[in-house]
Automatic annotation (TrEMBL), chain A:
Involved pathway(s): Alkaloid degradation; nicotine degradation
CDD domains named among the record's database cross-references: fer2
Keywords: 2Fe-2S, Iron, Iron-sulfur, Metal-binding, Oxidoreductase
Single annotated GO MF: oxidoreductase activity
InterPro entries: 2Fe-2S-bd, 2Fe-2S-bd_dom_sf, 2Fe-2S_ferredoxin-like_sf, 2Fe-2S_ferredoxin-type, 2Fe2S_fd_BS, Beta-grasp_dom_sf, Diverse_Oxidoreductases
Protein name, per record: 4-hydroxybenzoyl-CoA reductase subunit gamma
SUPFAM superfamilies on file: 2Fe-2S ferredoxin-like, CO dehydrogenase ISP C-domain like
Record bears the keyword ATP-binding: no
UniProtKB/TrEMBL annotation, chain B:
Annotated GO MF terms: FAD binding; oxidoreductase activity
Superkingdom of source: Bacteria
Record keywords, A-Z: FAD, Flavoprotein, Oxidoreductase
All copies of domain FAD-binding PCMH-type, residue ranges: 1-177
Protein source organism: Embleya scabrispora
Protein name: Molybdopterin dehydrogenase
Stored SUPFAM superfamilies: CO dehydrogenase flavoprotein C-terminal domain-like, FAD-binding/transporter-associated domain-like
Classification of source organism: Bacteria, Bacillati, Actinomycetota, Actinomycetes, Kitasatosporales
Amino acid sequence: MTETQIPTEQRLDIRLSVNGVPHTTTVTPRRLLSDCLRHDLGLTGTHVGCEHGVCGACTVRVDGKPMRACLMFAVSAQGHEITTVEGLAEPDGTMHPVQQAFRECHGLQCGFCTPGFLTVVSAFLEENPTPTEEEAREAVSGNLCRCTGYQNIVKSVLRAAEITEERKGCAHAEGDAR
Amino acid sequence: MKPPAFRYHAPTDLAEALDALAEVGHDGKVLAGGQSLIPMLNMRLAAPAHLVDINGLGELAYVRTDPGGVAVGALARHAEVEADEAAHAVVPLLRQGLRLVAHPVIRNRGTTVGSLAHADPSGEMTAVLALLGGSMTLARKGGTRTVAAEDFFVGPLEASIEEGELAVAAYFPRLPGRTGTEFVEIARRHGDYAMCGVAAAVTVDDDLRIVSARAAYLSLSPVPLVLDLTDALIGRTADTAVWQDAATLAAGSLEPEGDIHATAEYRAQLAGVLTVRALRTATERAALVDPNGNTGTTSTERSAR
């Protein structure tokens, strides 16, 4: 019997910065960022749906901008700051305004699509802190929710804008008190 | 699904990238934004043996505007071109088309030059480049060449990029005189590929009468189709034009095919309706253009976005 030689696949040592934490790991170049986050780094908050850029469940922020983690290779993410849904809350556990709004307005049902919505909406509100309902709809248009709960998701976006504003107000008030 | 295995090359400058492309030949594919390529890999519709990742080529991440038009480098993301005020002032059609390219999240990563190199007949940027009569700059080890839009798109997903060549830039020329533009499309879902899309450019004279009207179509033909519809509108103004005449003239040259998303008849109907909408808006905008101004845009247009 002759032995067939199976070519060894290229493997690369990479360094990723995720939610401010540096990680090192070894990947094949075809390792998708979404799989690297979940399987290599154990950050399972990023969900994987369609794997061709349609559903939006895997959206993470790359240098602040939302991007599809299933349409990036982990090797390409080196040198960039990745923020996943795990990185949205404050270090003390205080929920991000978008997380709080999704809870208050029932913006999540089964929750599978939620991490993608949260990362997209958190970035959107930084660019547009006072969106109209139409702008809110457009902002989430690249994300699918199979529980068909878009009404409450749009409400959540608008509520998150309010919460952000309220928290700013509180911060000012506290500052004044001191 | 997962991408097939490939050998990864990460050049850090253009010369290194061209060396890598020359070396890997027809087994190589360029990775820029990857928003079309990676889905094809994930679905195993493509299996290149080598990927040359040009994301390290910061020198190609530019949007440069001069009075004659806008040059876009291979690493400029759609979102960066869309947000560029100087580019919008000189070539408003760029932003009018870019806002219809997939979703904002895809535009954050995808590149304008990459979508042109991909040559998808449903791609908005292919229609924009074709309508404007723009060009592509292709570099290879030892030389560069410039290819006009009409010669660049060869067939569906096929551009005239040869082995070892890298599309380094696209040039979108400014349309002269009192010219207005508009880009409209109909998709089943906002951000999806359009079932039909129309980009239009209309030039009017000092009396605001139409002297030239052209339209480019996407999702209707293997390569972007540009039609001259001047005969149906010449001498008319936005108020007196019989728009349906232009739609009828266009219909004579369109041969849409049906697919799972829309029948041929429905696509033809969409093409007619969108032709009218795009031409009318472009004509109204043309009337607002200051022919002596340097920007070719108007304040109303800016506030409209």
